[in-house]
Sequence to fold (326 residues):
Amino acid sequence: MSRRTVLTAGGLFLILAIVGAAGFGAWALLSGTSPTGGDGGGGPGLAGGGVPGAPAVVDGLPVVSVSDFLARQVGTSADQPFAVAGWYSAEPPHSCPAGPIDPVTGQIREATPLETYCHTDEEILDGLPEPVADVSQTSNSMTVSRHDLRGPWFQPIFAYPFGGPGVTPTVINKPWLPTPVVLVGHVADPRATKCPPDQVAACAARFVVDHVAWQTRGALGPSVVADPGSGLTPKLTAAQVRAIVNTRFAGPNTFLGLAAVGRADFTRYEPLMPVDVVDGPIVWEVRLLFQGDGRSRLVTALVSDETGTVAWTTLLSPGQSDPGPS
Fold:
């Protein structure tokens, strides 16, 4: 069991020590099942994935339990969406060292989008309402111990721009408290190929969140990130971008997320998408569910904020530009 103690000051958590068998740089399983338990209330085939109050369908997708997802996700493609119900919890936030060490150069490098780095197994979607960690607090300190999980679980990846501050479904100030949610996402993300060679398989197996679709307060609309940073201001609104994409893809379309990203930063988050086909300093990345080929497909579209046109979609190869509506 890992354990760490932190000092708290002004609402910030400051790391004092981390002790455990894994340590920084070690990689544990990103999903698990208890030898004694199933889903508890989240057994196979139950409406809402067995989570009380959860809908049976979100974003046009049937909601499955954590155990159902773990059984079905093997061998699927990146455009196949899953809606998974469970209880989300996360350890208290903490800082990491500057970056992972490149084994060849020995130098610090930037973590790739799907690497968990020093946050491995620190946030989970669980088939049971149990916390990822047991936390005790005093007036000036906090002790965090890894909880002995009984239910099946996996670690969801909230990769920017569709995951991050304001998107992850935590309880304010106490993220370790289990929160019932439905997450829409996918596995086999192509960005797994950018992970270090010994981690590619683990990165490909990770559940990448596209949309927090439901919490106890009800269904949630698409996430919108309209501030690209670097002093940039989009010309287009999210509503205008949705209209542009709807013109390109004859509906019905279900929008999961829209994000304005500075072109200079785009390849940090999407290293495989051809940002060079997009005119202007701001790229709108749009994640949607498109009804094509008789099934719901997960599609990403890149929209130029400068020209107001769809420049590329994941239905094309990286070298192609978008020809427009067919």
Notes: The first strand starts at residue 3 and ends at 9. The helical segments are 66-72, 200-204, 238-248, 263-269.
